[in-house]
Amino acid sequence: MNEYAVSDYGIFDGGVTAVRSLCDNYETGRSNLTSYYKVLSDGTIFLGPICDSCVAGFSKVDGKITTASENFKVISDYLIDTSANYQKGDSDASAKVLSADSNGRLEATTLQAYRGNGQTVYYNQKGWYDEQGNLHRWETTWGKDIASSGCGPTSMAACLATMLGDTSITPSTMANMMNYDDNIGGNYVTKIAAHYNLDQTHNIGLDQSKMDTFLDNGGTMIVAVNDGGHYIAVLGRNNDGTYVVCDPNDFNTAQKTWNYSDIATGHTMVFHIAPQGKTVDECLQEHGVAVQV
User: Fold this and answer.
1) Cα–Cα distance between 33 and 258 in angstroms, integer?
2) What gap in Å lies between CA 17 and CA 190, rounded to an integer?
3) CB neighbours (10 Å) of residue 167?
4) What span, in angstroms and rounded, lies between the C-alpha atoms of 148 and 137?
5) Which of 54-63 are b and which e, b meaning 16 or more Cβ less than 10 Å from the residue's Cβ?
6) CA dihedral 87, 90, 91, 96 (to 10 degrees)
7) Dihedrals φ, ψ of 135, to 5°?
8) For 164-182, what is the mean pLDDT?
9) 6 Cβ contact list (under 8 Å, min separation 6)
10) What's residue 1's pLDDT?
11) What is the DSSP string of the chain?
12) CA 119 to CA 114: how far, in whole Å?
């Protein structure tokens, strides 16, 4: 990827200034709200249930304003950190993402997944963008268009490129090793894993405990989701227990939070691919720990 030049770091300055201004405005509004809240609270002894309802309403608004104010501060810090990380390189900057909890509170987290080779490779079946923003499609000889029908080879490419540390393994590489019929029923997994001398199986299922142990020991998985209509690659686990997933049909897959239910709901086939030098059984039996990289 193209690293930003020093002169480009200032692209974040405007965003930081705007968010800080929002923070100040929200703090002012919250201060005013607090004073009005006190007036209403003091008056409840005279106004009874009517004012009680107003106080309850103000409390809800105050909670939302507090959350919004805190979120703007998180965004501001996130932009500052991202600006600093771009000085180290695009990969450092893209590793830090914003995520929201069930209450709408934002948190900036760094993707710290188990990566046997120190990196995670994400591919998209539609192709890739060059530095000028042009979309390039994956070329293939298998008789089908990867963009519309290539979630299988794209998932397999993400698994192997990540495990083997070899980005010369692309969706085109995978597709050119298979017939289109191999994409049906997941036959391509068996075929390609054998070519790379990797042990694999589709007889384990998707028990979460086994899945976690397997991933922590360097394995990767391909799961047929959407009731078997789409393949995704499960590449590892984050320190917080969420999963590193490559969805071939989504350019933003790396920025999403993937929980077990996101992978398991509507799944049909599951393929476990062991790393070089290990068997699937060894990956399931050994005690592994998701490590920070």
Assistant:
1) 38
2) 53
3) 12
4) 11
5) beeebeeeee
6) 80
7) -85, 125
8) 88
9) 87
10) 34
11) -PPPPGGGGGGGHHHHHHHHHHHHHHHHHHHHHHHHHHHHHHTHHHHTHHHHHHHHHHHHHHHHHHHHHHHHHHHHHHHHHHHHHHTT-HHHHHTEEEEE-TTS-EEEEE--B--TTS------TT-EE-TTS-EEPPP-SSSS-HHHH-HHHHHHHHHHHHHHT-TT--HHHHHTTS-GGGGGGGHHHHHHHHHTT--EES-S---HHHHHHHHHTT-EEEEEETTTTEEEEEEEEBTTS-EEEE-TT-TTGGGS-B-HHHHHTT---EEEEPPTT--HHHHHHS-------
12) 9
Q: How many CB atoms are closer than 10 A to CB 82?
A: 19
Beta strands 128-129 and 135-136, pairing class = antiparallel
- Tracing tokens 């709901």 back to the chain, one arrives at 265
Question: Which whole number is the average pLDDT over 266-272?
Answer: 91
Spatial distance between the Cα atoms of 121 and 248, rounded to a whole number of angstroms: 11
Phi–psi pair at 98, nearest 5 degrees: -95, 135
pTM above 0.70, yes or no: no
Q: Which two tokens stand for residue 271?
A: 């393929």
Q: Residue 33 class from Cβ within 10 Å (0-12 exposed, 13-18 middle, 19+ buried)?
A: middle
Handedness of CA 284, 288, 292, 293 (dihedral sign): negative
Domains and CATH numbers, the chain: 6-110 (no CATH), 128-285 (3.90.70.10)
User: What is residue 32's predicted lDDT score, i.e. its pLDDT?
Assistant: 75
Within 10 A of 186 (CB to CB), how many other CB atoms are there?
A: 22
Strands 106-110, 96-100: pairing is antiparallel
